[in-house]
Amino acid sequence: MKILFLGPQGSGKGTQAKLLAASLRLPMFSMGQLLRDEVAAKTDLGSQINEILLSGELVPASVTAEVLQMRLAKPDAQQGYILDGFPRNEEQYQSFTFEQPTHVFVIMIPEEETYRRLGDRLTCSVCGYVTSTKLGFKKEDPCPLHDGGLLIQRTDDTPEAITKRLEIYEQDTQPVIRSYRRQGIVYEIDGVGSVEEVHQRILDALRTS
Fold it and tell me: Is 190 helix (H, G, I), strand (E, B) or coil?
């Protein structure tokens, strides 16, 4: 199976991708992590990516496609994989012609739920650990992983930034979802509920696909 996870910010698609990867014993990765890994490996391509990132520009779709194609060629991905949050726009979609997904899970949550979830989210300033005020944490609390970092609200988790990100999702990602829907491989999943409940909905959708 070649599975993609898409959905608005705060939908929990990354969490669900990890859970499904564990259930199916498939490798799971996000495009952002693959780019960071390439930079960390200090390859020629990684150096090129690093220069682009440092300049504040977006990594071109042709470059992300090259990185992704190299990752999917590795032995552990030959029986399938799970890809989180890619492709996000038409350019990335057009660059992804070397693969044909079998399932595209779109995690659906109401807009107000996005604001609530991201508004509650706190991130460690050092390691990136993510938690929530709903779990009793507050801004500036020490990271529970004891790495010396403090819990902060990311600038892209403010209401203004969330609004902008939702607009981008509607403008850029929804056309990609429509393209996959025409292929008959989109499965819309209700993302409201516990992590376990949403995971079970995904498993049920897989069984009936």
Answer: strand
Task: Domain 2-208: give its CATH architecture.
Answer: 3-Layer(aba) Sandwich (3.40)
182 in a labelled binding site: no
> Which tens digit of pLDDT belongs to each residue from 121-151?
999 998 888 899 989 999 999 999 988 899 9
d(CA 138, CA 62): 41
- The annotation status of 135 as a binding-site residue, yes or no, is no
53 is in an annotated binding site: no
- What value does the mean pLDDT take over residues 173-190? 98
Domain edges within the chain? 2-208
92 is in an annotated binding site: yes
Q: What CA–CA distances, in Å, run from 38 to 51, 66, 71, 190, 200? A: 12, 11, 10, 34, 34
